[in-house]
Amino acid sequence: MNKNISALLLFLAFTFSSHGQSKLTSTSIEVDGLCGMCKKRIENAAYLPGVKKVNWNKESHQLELVFLNKKVSQEEIIASINSIGHDVEGSLASEEQYAKVHGCCKYRDPEQRANHGLGDALCTQTGDQ
Q1: What Cα–Cα distance (Å) separates residue 117 from each residue in 3, 41, 120?
Q2: pLDDT tens digit string along 87-99?
Q3: 3-state secondary structure of 22
Q4: pLDDT at 126
Q5: DSSP strands (E only) in the chain
Q6: Pairwise CA distance, residues 86 & 98, whole Å
Q7: 3-class DSSP state for residue 100?
Q8: pLDDT tens digits, residue range 54-72?
């Protein structure tokens, strides 16, 4: 009887510890962009294996994310977004990466921002703002 209880407790401990590693994380990050084309590009870049939900809001520039920690990290998602040329708060795309963005989506260009009714670029630093 004690062996059965011990085995059950061991099984439950293992189940709970492995379950905790596959935790879902829900977060929001700021990603700079201008339009519907930006939205599609940002969401496609963020939708890596393990990501369950992505939604970028054009007005607030907030990207809502829900992802499995054991499959993907927030840093990997940010790197993917940077790789297609979009700045994330705390992590700017390189000039080479930014050059990939379509001409009408050049969110760092003050003229393009004005054309879309926006002020200064949001993600302008690599550190805390």
Answers
A1: 70, 20, 10
A2: 999 999 999 999 9
A3: coil
A4: 44
A5: 24-30, 51-56, 62-68
A6: 6
A7: coil
A8: 999 999 999 999 999 999 9
Tens digit of pLDDT for each residue in 20-48? 456 999 999 999 999 999 999 999 999 99
Could you tell me if 34 and 123 are in contact, meaning their C-beta atoms sit under 8 angstroms apart?
no
- Strands of the 62-68 sheet, one edge to the other: 24-30, 62-68, 51-56
As given in the structure block, the two tokens for residue 129 are: 């703002």
Question: To the nearest whole percent, how much of the chain has pLDDT over 70?
Answer: 74
Query: What residues contact residue 79 under an 8 Å CB cut-off, 6+ apart?
Result: 91
Structure tokens belonging to residue 48: 């890596």
Reported residue count of the chain is 129
CATH topology of domain 23-115: Alpha-Beta Plaits (3.30.70)
Using an 8 Å Cβ cutoff, are 33 and 88 in contact?
Answer: no
pTM here is 0.76
CA count, 13 A, side-chain hemisphere, 129: 11
